């Protein structure tokens, strides 16, 4: 990984952690967008670096939140979805959904940054 990829990864997580205190779930999209706007990446890294950053962040965050109540709500939601009642799979799916949202927003941020710089 290049230094730019690592910087974008860390900045995305920091922005997401700060914004998670004030904004609803879509704060990850703002974090991916802002990080990609100011820290330009190349090719597929534009999507995958914020995707991995937010996937890790949301997975850890969801695990921490759920472990505080013995995964009670996660177990109930996992029963409603076709996950076999496994709360850990639900937490992984949560991370993937957040990562996808951040990755798409980062691609938009990169494209907007390129458009403004021209």
Give a short overview.
It contains five helices and no strands.
Please explain how this structure is put together.
With 118 residues, the protein is mostly helical. The protein has one domain (3-117). It is built from five helices and no strands. The chain has helices spanning 3-19, 27-38, 45-67, 72-80, 87-117. α1 runs antiparallel to α2.
In helices, the fraction of residues equals over 70%
Q: What's the β-strand tally?
A: 0
Number of helices: 5
Radius of gyration: 15 Å
Query: How many structural domains are formed by the residues?
Result: 1
- Give the termini separation: 27 Å
- Largest sheet, if any? none
Low-confidence stretches: none
Helix and strand composition category: mainly alpha
Overall geometric form: elongated
Report the sheet-strand fraction. under 5%
The ordered string of helix (H) and strand (E) elements is HHHHH
Mean pLDDT: 92
């Amino acid at each position: 990984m290049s230094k730019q990829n690592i910087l974008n990864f860390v900045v995305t997580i920091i922005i997401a952690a700060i914004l998670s205190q004030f904004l609803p779930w879509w704060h990850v999209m703002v974090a991916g967008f802002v990080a990609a706007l100011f820290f330009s990446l190349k090719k597929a890294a534009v999507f995958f670096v914020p995707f991995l950053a937010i996937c890790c962040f949301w997975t850890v965050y969801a695990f921490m939140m759920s472990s505080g109540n013995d995964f009670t709500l996660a177990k109930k939601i996992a029963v409603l979805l076709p996950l076999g009642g496994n709360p850990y799979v639900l937490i992984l799916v949560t991370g993937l959904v957040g990562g996808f949202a951040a990755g798409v927003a980062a691609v938009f941020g990169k494209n907007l940054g390129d458009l403004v710089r021209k």
